[in-house]
Amino acid sequence: MSLPVSPLAPAAFPQMPALTGVTFAAHACGIRYKNRDDLLLMVLPANTTAAGVFTRSKCPSAPVDWCREALKKGKARARAVLVNAGNANAFTGEVGAASVARTVAKAAEVIGCAPEHVFVSSTGTIGEPLPDARITENLDTVFAKAMAGGDESGDWQKAAAAIMTTDTFPKGATRQATIDGVTVTINGIAKGSGMIAPDMATMLSYVVTDAALPADVLQALLTKATDKTFNCITVDSDTSTSDTLLLFATGTAGNKPVKDAADKRLKAFKAALTEVLLDLAQQVARDGEGASKFIEVRVTGAESARAAKRIAMTIADSPLVKTAIAGEDANWGRIVMAVGKAGEKADRDRLAIRIGGVEVAAKGRAVEGYDETPVVAHMKGKEIVLEVDIGLGKGKATVWTCDLTHGYIDINGSYRT
Amino acid sequence: MSLPVSPLAPAAFPQMPALTGVTFAAHACGIRYKNRDDLLLMVLPANTTAAGVFTRSKCPSAPVDWCREALKKGKARARAVLVNAGNANAFTGEVGAASVARTVAKAAEVIGCAPEHVFVSSTGTIGEPLPDARITENLDTVFAKAMAGGDESGDWQKAAAAIMTTDTFPKGATRQATIDGVTVTINGIAKGSGMIAPDMATMLSYVVTDAALPADVLQALLTKATDKTFNCITVDSDTSTSDTLLLFATGTAGNKPVKDAADKRLKAFKAALTEVLLDLAQQVARDGEGASKFIEVRVTGAESARAAKRIAMTIADSPLVKTAIAGEDANWGRIVMAVGKAGEKADRDRLAIRIGGVEVAAKGRAVEGYDETPVVAHMKGKEIVLEVDIGLGKGKATVWTCDLTHGYIDINGSYRT
Fold first, then answer.
1. What is the ipTM of this complex?
2. Fewest 10 Å CB contacts: which of A180, A217, A406, B278?
C-alpha cells in the first residue's frame, strides 16, 4: 500500500540546521512494515528541559500515559525520545503498559539515564500488542548508530520519514530567533494525515530548540502556541488515542535563561515557535487522507475568540462543506448551515460570507449579481479561503482543513489486512 | 437527477387509516422540480391542537421562524399545513419572511382561518428567494382538490412523495392505541436523507392523530418522544436550517381529553407515538445519502443516560467508524477512538465492545481468539449492530445512523447546477 504524494505537499523538506548534542538514528525493526525505517531514537544532551501536550481522548494509549507521568516524575527533563510506527500500543490493557516499561527500561540502560527521562510514542494499528522485543533487541545498535553520527545523524528528513504511517510525505519545519541577542534554532518534525486512518495514523510531533529555557516556561509557551496551531487543524473531526506533541530545550545556544513566559525577551522566540508549529500543523492538514484542496476558514465578528474558533471548526468539520469543496462548488448555503449548527450566537441577517475574497452573501442573503467568475476560478484551485463575518462582535479565529473526497473513503473504507 | 432507491428502504409504504376531517392534496407548482408534485396542503378540522419541535440551528429558515411564532400567537391551534419542496426559503433575509407572510395570508383566506393557524415548511435550495407566487396562484385549486376528496385525498403516500427532495422513497408510519378505551390513530409522514444535501434536504415530519389532547399535553408528549427518536438519528452530523416536526390532534376520535401528560391513561398512546416517530426517524437514516448499511449503536454502562447518548452519537457521527462499516471492516479500534473523543467519562480498561452480538474487545483489549466468522458475516449484512459497554454506570442510549460511502461524496460533491 503506497499512496501517491498529496497534491498539497510542500515542494521540498526544509534544510534543518544541526543542533549541538542532538543526535538520532532511524532503524528498520520490522514492527509491521517491511524494508523501511519504523523506529526513531533521538538522544538529547543532559539538562534538556521538556514540555508536552497530549490527546484529549479519554482512552489514551499506553505511551501517552507514560509521557504524562514521565513529565511529572522526571521533573520535565529529557534525555531521549523513542518513536515507533506500525503499532499504536493503544487499547492493549496491562500488556501495553508492560511493553512501554520494558522499552523504556532498555533505552534508559543503553543511554545511561533515568527511565523517566525517556519519552515514547507509538503510532499504527490499535488493539494489537506491541512486539516490543523488536524494539529492545535493536536498541544497542540504534543507539550506537546515533552516537556514531553516522549517515542518519542530523538527517531530520530521515527521522520524519521513520515515524510515518499513512502520511504521503515527511514533515519538517525550522525557524531561528534571538533571545537576548543570542541566536537560537527551533527544529520540528511531525506525522499525521487522518486521525487513526486505516487503523493507523495519529498526530505526533517532536520539536527541539537549542535555547535555554526552564521547563515551566517551555510548557507555558508550548500550550499557548499549540492553541493557535495544532489545535486549529482538523481532517475528519476524529481524535486519536495517541496525539503527542513534545518540545525540548537543550540550552546549548547559551542564552541566559528567561524565567518568565511573559518576559518580552521571548517575543521573537514565541513567534518563531508558533511558526514552526503552524507550519507542521498545516502540513498535516495538507496530507489529510484523500485531500485535494487545502482550506483556510477565517471567522471574524463572533462574540468571542472562543466562539469564533468553535464556528470555524464546525465549518471545517462539516462533511457537507468539505464535499462541496471537493466538488468545486461555491455552496455558501452549507457554510450558513454550519454556522447555525455550531451552537454559538449568530444572527442570520448579519452574516457575510466571502469565498476567495469575493463577497457572495451578506445581510442574511445572497449578494445579487456578484461576479461568479473569480469565485468559480478560486474553487478550481488547490488553496481555498472561506471567510465568514458573524457581524456581532470582535472574536476571530482561523483554522485549516482539507476537503472530503473519494480518496478518504478509499483509504478508510478498505480492510485492515 | 434520479437516485436509485436506498437498499435499506422498507418493503412498502404502510396502509394508513383515514382520519376524519383531515384532507389534503398534493400539487405540481413547478417551484423547482418539473412534472412532479412539489406542494402539499393538509387541511385540519376546527379545534385541532398543535405541538412542534424545530431545528436547533442558530440560523433557522423563515418558515421555522413563522411556525415557532404561530404556535404561540395562535395558541397552539392549527387548521392547515403547507409544505413545498425545491426551495428552502432559508437565508433569504426579509424577502423570505415576506414570502411566508404572503403564502400564509393566501392560505388563510382560501381556508377561512386565522393566518397563525397555518403552518408552513419549505425544503430545498438555500439562499434563493422562494417564488411564492407559484404557490399562492395555485392555492385555490389545491384547496378545492383537498376539499373535493379527489384522488389525492387520504393518499398519504402521495403526500409524503410531494415533500421529498433527495429522498429515494416516501416515508410513512401509522399506529393505533386506546385512550380510556377509545381507539385512536396516529399517522405520520416524513422526509429527509442528509442534512441539506445537494443543497436540498432537511428533516420534515407531520404527524396527525385523531385523539383529543390539550395542546400543552401534546407538546409534552412530543418533546419527550422526539428525544428518544428523531433526536437519536444522524446521517452526517450536519444540521439543517429547516428541521420541523409538527404533531396535530384533531379530537375526532372522541376520547375524553386527558389533561396531564403524566396521566396513566396516556401510556399506550405515548408508546404508539414513540413508535411512529421512531419508525419515521429510522426511515430517514435508512435513506441517508449513499447509505448501504443501517447502523444501530447501543451504549450501556455510561455514567448517565446523557453521557450514553453523547458517546453513542459520537460513534454514529465518526467518519472513521462509518467508512470502516462501509468497507465491511469490524474495526473496533475506531469505536474505542470515538468513545475516547466523546468527552464523557470512560475508562479504557473497562470498555467492552460487541459487533453483531459477538464480544470482540473487553477489559481494555482485544478478546483473544474470538470467533471472527460470525462477525465477518455480520459486517457483510445490511443491518449492523454495535454495542459498547462503558463499564462505569447504568446510563444507556441507542441511536441509529448509516455508513459513509462513495455515494455520499457523489451526491454531495456534485455541482448544484
1. 0.82
2. A180
